[in-house]
Design a protein that fits this description.
Layout lengths: L4 H9 L2 E7 L5 E7 L1 E2 L4 E6 L3 H8 L2 E8 L2 E12 L2 H12 L10 H11 L1 E14 L2
């Protein structure tokens, strides 16, 4: 496994992170995001025209920083945009499961909402993690 059980628990227990992507000029772009981790990958919802989505379309390398007081975990991985179809719906439902506005279980209704908002899902497949949890 690419992370320890303690690191996986920390990532699962939290909901917010700073997502870093690369701008066109190579400088970092950071955004505070809400995410969901299932032990395998990280998913989040964003706008298709957002800086995050544009940056990932250009370069899939990303990092997430989850911080809690003096404890933190940085996760490095590759991201992909899920713009439509069943994978996007599954990811959006996961991403919104712990939030105040769960996603509709009706596929057509969810597709309509996401289309009106211009929303996509982003899936991050972690490659390594490091931090201080003790």
């Amino acid at each position: 496994m690419w992370m320890t059980p303690e690191q996986a628990d920390f990532l699962t227990e939290h909901r917010f992170a700073a997502l870093a992507t690369g701008r066109r000029d190579g400088s970092p772009q950071q955004s505070l995001i809400a995410y969901e981790f299932d032990g395998t990958d990280v998913v989040l919802q964003t706008g298709l025209g957002s800086a995050k989505a544009r940056n990932v379309a250009r370069c899939a390398d990303v990092s997430l920083l989850v911080q809690d007081g003096g404890r933190y975990l940085t996760v490095y991985g590759r991201a992909e945009i899920l713009a439509d179809g069943p994978e996007r719906r599954r990811a959006i439902r996961r991403a919104r499961a712990r939030g105040s506005r769960p996603a509709s279980e009706d596929d057509a209704e969810l597709d309509r909402e996401l289309g009106e908002r211009g929303s996509v899902a982003m899936r991050i497949v972690p490659a390594r993690a490091m931090g201080r949890l003790g």
